[in-house]
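Posting here for the record, re: UFG.
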Amino acid sequence: MAILVLGGAGYIGSHTVYRLIEAGRDVVVADNLQTGFKEAVHPKARFYQLDIRDKGALDELFRKEKIEGVIHFAASSQVGESMTNPLKYYNNNLYGTMVLLQSMVDNGIDKIVFSSTAATYGEPERVPILEGDKTFPTNCYGQTKLAMEQMMGWVSRAHGLRYVALRYFNACGAHVSGKIGEAHDPETHLLPIILQVPLGQRKEVSIFGDDYPTKDGTCIRDYIHVTDLAEAHILALDYLVAGGENNVFNLGNGVGFTVKEVIDIAREVTGHPIPAKIAERRAGDPAQLIASSQKAIDVLGWKPQYNDLYTIVETAWNWHRTHPHGFKEE
Ligand code: UFG
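Prediction output follows.
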């Protein structure tokens, strides 16, 4: 039986496909290639170019392949864009998941692991954040992810499908092989933006606000290596296969770094001075997001391997310096 990875040509999806193949699993990838890259798909995975909103294409795939469970990354994920174009997020994320779940129900596929986010919490009441803490998203992206979790809950009650939602904190880093890594267009994430400076693609980094109530005034985030996230998906699917009930897990390292600390580590790793300037706060940024991942550790047996940000940044730098234009050859 194969595992279907939707959005397997994207950043976290492609790393999960690599881990699955490394673990000897049979993998089918589907992606519409709107933001993903065909080059990121592991050559041993069977690839289908399709959009999850196309129920006919999904039904055909489920008839053709013997699918044991689905890992679902196929969604839009830019916080800023979700605020200016919320309907795109309702369409791709919520409507897309609705079509997918209908197709899974119709074809008797009853296990799904999917990408959720720390953005479901909004401004946290306390850190580290626990899964039972209040969810009050401050952006439309987080809202659609929370609604996707809830949709799975209702579909589960009606049709017996089971799900695991994985709430990622700040995904970063790249596969150790250097073959795949982060490639967004436009890039909005802190670490790849920092690394554009030593690559000569940007003069300096803008630090969005230095008047937050943190030790150096800049925002604190919990950075987690993409391969550790990938591993958690495999454990979550195995948990469902073993009969595990619906569940939600945070995935982070449980350690917070300020924006200034991340820049300092990147300076050490790259040997470049990486000039930085203070800019306005970015709307909607919580001051601090740190996960408690104790539940994933206890229930799934998850053991993050990359708990040192220096090593995480090294893997990212290894990818970016060898692929300065991502998957595009220029
Ligand atoms: N930042 C800068 N300068 C930049 C880019 C980012 O100072 O040029 C700061 C941000 O203000 C933030 C931190 O760096 O404080 C991290 O920003 P990212 O954009 O890399 O990540 P976010 O924490 O905003 O977003 C991440 C995920 C989202 C998820 C969100 C949960 O990328 O998918 O966490 O809040 F929704």
